[in-house]
Design a protein that fits this description.
about 260 residues; about 0% strand; elongated
Amino acid sequence: MTDPTQICEDILRADKAGNIEKAILPSENRIIDRLLDRRLELVEAYAEIHEKLHARPYGIETMLGIVTNVAAFWNPERVADARDARNRLEEVNREIAELAMDLAGLLEERSEIGNTSGFASDTHYHIVDVIDAASSENGFYRFHLRDELKPLSSRYDLKYWPSLAEVVRVIGQDADIAGTAATDSLTRAATTGSRGSRADFFKALFELIMENDTASHGHIPRGFKLSDSTLATLANCALDLGPDDVVDAAYVKRLRQRLRGESR
């Protein structure tokens, strides 16, 4: 007789043992422990996963790995951190734009004083000198690029080069117009909403399932779907949600309907 719960738990235990042996992914091991602790709640979910994926080589392993990965790295706390990072990146770009404009103005003022007052400060004025100083500890620069770059500063006078103020001003303009976008599909899926919610976990879960389907050379059948109740159970156990916080099948159904509407 086949016991889907035993099969799934053996896979989880093997994953945990492999992680421990390699000293990696302790956060995923914590999710595995949660799933093992709440085994009675997962019997029906494991049965559905086994029924739909047992004929696929590595199908069950892949699906369980998706659950532990998303719960470890795309749980509500991690997604909140990602949103904070996005907001901070936008704020940093605004600050860079403002400071660069101020610094460009000061650099121009210093040059003007040096050219008209009879006084000068012993500071860099050529972009090549700045590059050379900034790369003094860079062995690749010193041994491969320096001997080619330095002669150019004497071969071509200042009219051929941007001033330090112009370089700084371009850095500021670049930051001012910069857009902020996720660099991978999971980050994009989990942070599309304006504020965090449990939906973020499911969005990341759906995205990672698609990234591991046969259309993407993975082990999950294309168009694979688990029932609303199984998805709710997996989320409740993997995220260790208590009785007052659990999501149910109706929540997952509404979320799927909303996401389908948004994709049209």
